[in-house]
Amino acid sequence: MTPVVLRFSGLLLLAFELCGQQQPLPYSHKTHLALGLECKTCHKNPDPGELMEYPPESLCMSCHRAIKTDSPHIKKLAAAATEKKPIPWVRVYRLPPFVYFSHRVHAEARAACETCHGPVRERDVITKQVANDMRFCMTCHTASKARNDCAACHEER
Ligand code: HEC
Ligand code: HEC
Ligand code: HEC
Ligand code: HEC
Ligand code: HEC
Question: What is residue 93's predicted lDDT score, i.e. its pLDDT?
Fold first, then answer.
């Protein structure tokens, strides 16, 4: 009996991972981008430019003070905004600490978000659709004649 139960719970866990159900709220890029919002409305790139920020809850509440206020998810969002406690979004893309990366440099080189993150606009749930591994980075650097010596990505900055 026990092994069957264990195997079943294993499958459930797998299903959870595949559906990416781990985010604290069922936020959908597909739904929100269909409203005409742009990436940069929510994802700011403050100086010095490495990081793309997550949006503040107050920005979400500019709409959700009036939209879906009965939803338990929106109640949670509203509470987070009032208490100024950011929603703990689970990271999808994460490089190891020995790799240097800057969003600003790539935005200025006109690399599209989709090249590295896939068709975000069509997704309810963001999963790691593009492997941002060394081969991926170096292939594009070769094609676009960017620096490709080891130190370009592995030197401390
Ligand atoms: C209404 C605000 C909003 C807009 C507009 C928006 N995003 Fe997001 N984005 C979020 C939130 C909230 C999260 C965290 C939850 C999640 O991962 O779905 C997120 C997460 C992400 C992540 C995952 C980051 C990580 O590694 O954890 C990527 C990539 C991303 N967004 C790309 C985009 C792109 C590309 C666009 C434009 C096509 C866009 N977003 C537009 C709010 C927004
Ligand atoms: C431009 C207005 C607007 C902004 C800004 C906005 N939303 Fe929404 N949101 C909507 C609309 C419209 C819906 C769909 C409502 C429906 O299904 O009828 C929605 C639906 C949702 C839902 C699904 C609620 C449910 O129970 O069905 C969640 C969760 C959500 N939004 C979270 C967020 C988060 C988190 C942010 C900020 C990162 C955000 N929204 C910013 C307009 C907005
Ligand atoms: C050249 C590839 C590339 C492009 C282009 C790119 N990203 Fe990223 N993004 C990454 C990588 C790699 C990470 C993980 C960074 C890390 O762990 O240091 C990441 C992480 C993120 C994160 C999580 C927070 C962070 O900065 O680590 C968000 C949100 C995000 N990207 C949104 C976007 C949006 C929006 C765009 C377009 C405006 C975009 N990205 C363009 C490669 C890219
Ligand atoms: C879409 C193509 C593309 C992808 C994918 C890409 N890059 Fe780049 N990257 C560029 C271009 C083009 C430049 C040069 C910009 C310039 O010189 O102005 C650049 C510059 C850089 C720089 C600055 C180098 C310097 O001149 O000092 C670093 C660091 C870097 N990329 C790291 C990465 C990493 C890490 C990844 C993978 C996670 C990656 N890049 C993926 C196109 C790309
Ligand atoms: C354009 C950026 C870029 C350049 C140039 C680059 N790397 Fe990397 N490197 C990465 C990224 C991104 C990772 C993380 C890979 C991952 O998470 O799968 C990585 C990982 C590594 C690792 C860890 C391997 C592993 O499997 O975890 C080593 C070792 C390494 N690089 C050595 C080098 C050497 C040596 C050079 C020069 C010949 C070099 N790298 C050039 C981006 C780069």
Answer: 97
8 Å CB contact between 57 and 87 = yes
> Can you say whether the dihedral through the CA atoms of 31, 60, 38, 49 is positive or negative?
negative
CA dist., res. 96 & res. 44, Å (int): 22
* 81 DSSP 8-state letter: H
Q: Give pLDDT, residue 13.
A: 45
Q: Is 45 helix (H, G, I), strand (E, B) or coil?
A: coil
Q: What is the pLDDT of residues 106-117, one digit of tens each?
A: 999 999 999 999
Question: What is the separation of C-alpha 95 from the centre of its chain, rounded to a whole number of angstroms?
Answer: 13
In degrees, rounded to 5, the angle at the alpha carbon of residue 103 between the alpha carbons of residues 106 and 141 is 35
Does any ligand 1 atom lie closer than 6 A to the CB of residue 101? no
Which ligand 3 atom sits nearest the alpha carbon of residue 94? 17
